[in-house]
Design a protein that fits this description.
3-stranded antiparallel beta sheet, alpha/beta, 5-stranded mixed beta sheet, Arc Repressor Mutant, subunit A, 278 residues, DUF1835, DUF1835 domain-containing protein, DUF3658
């Protein structure tokens, strides 16, 4: 059995669950790209793949994750997966939580696996209650939020991806690829909606004023005060764009990394930016 997850933190969480139940025994592989953002036109073709890599190089520049572009080779992971799944005794379980990252990764992956229908299982843990460490009921968005022992109940949800899903879901993903929006958000179930690249800008601007604050503080405020599910590296890329547009004033040197960057709102009235509850 192979297990597929889409976030690094999910790997160790699932591995701990496997230790508790030998029936789950198998390797845990991760699809590492973040398909919820960035260009995806012709994603399975050489040109589209290279366009996406070039975009990520720009986004990752001067970030703490500069080397990430060199360790992400999901195409090779899929190649190894298709080789392994040809074994008549091998099956693959795709795990995903109720978040844009996992669902977009699922679409990208399963669209390449139709010929293995019947051997590809999905476990989508959406709108399901689990028990947290305090014994309280909660609804997780991500797999890594779930206690390992709770996965022993979740495994009962494993089901083969149906033939009809292998027809419908790749078509849905193809529409998103043709649309080629820079941001994609989850609107419930498996419904993904494309958004313009400035979709999060107002939320960022509303957390700034004319007094300087550290970039790290801005990012912390963003993730604690909004319900938006996206990565810090994408937000910093947007901040750079807002600096270019003279909406944000920056002090510091990007080449020295993020830690010394301070930001403030340009000489605008904050009321010019609407308050978002995303």
């Amino acid at each position: 059995m192979l297990h597929i997850v889409f976030q690094e933190a999910d790997v160790s969480t699932l591995q701990k669950a496997i230790e508790l139940d030998e029936k789950l025994n198998g390797e845990v592989w991760q699809i590492k790209d973040e398909f919820a953002v960035g260009p995806i036109a012709d994603i399975y073709e050489t040109e589209g793949y290279q366009n996406r890599r070039d975009w990520w190089k720009e986004v990752l520049e001067n970030s703490p994750y500069t080397d990430a572009i060199n360790i992400v080779d999901d195409k090779l992971t899929v190649h190894h997966l298709t080789q392994r799944i040809q074994d008549e005794n091998e099956v693959c379980w795709i795990w995903m939580g109720q978040n844009t990252h996992d669902v977009c990764g699922y679409y990208w992956l399963m669209s390449q696996l139709k010929e293995h229908q019947g051997k590809i299982f999905v476990l989508y843990l959406n709108n399901l209650p689990f028990i947290n460490e305090k014994g309280q009921l909660f609804y997780p968005n991500n797999l890594f939020e779930i206690q390992p022992k709770e996965f022993l109940k979740a495994k009962k949800l494993a089901r083969p991806i149906s033939l009809s899903e292998f027809e419908v879901d790749p078509d849905e993903w193809k529409k998103l690829c043709n649309e080629n929006a820079i941001i994609r958000t989850l609107e419930g179930g498996k419904k993904i909606v494309g958004r313009s690249e400035d979709y999060y800008d107002a939320a960022l601007l509303n957390l700034l004023n004319t007094e300087s604050q550290k970039l790290s503080k801005l990012l912390h405020s963003f993730f604690t005060k909004t319900k938006i599910q996206t990565g810090d590296v994408f937000l910093v890329w947007r901040i750079k764009k807002l600096i270019e547009q003279n909406k944000i004033v920056m002090q510091g040197d990007w080449s020295k990394g993020w830690k010394d960057i301070t930001l403030s709102l340009a000489n605008y009235k904050q009321s010019e930016f609407y308050t978002t509850e995303m």
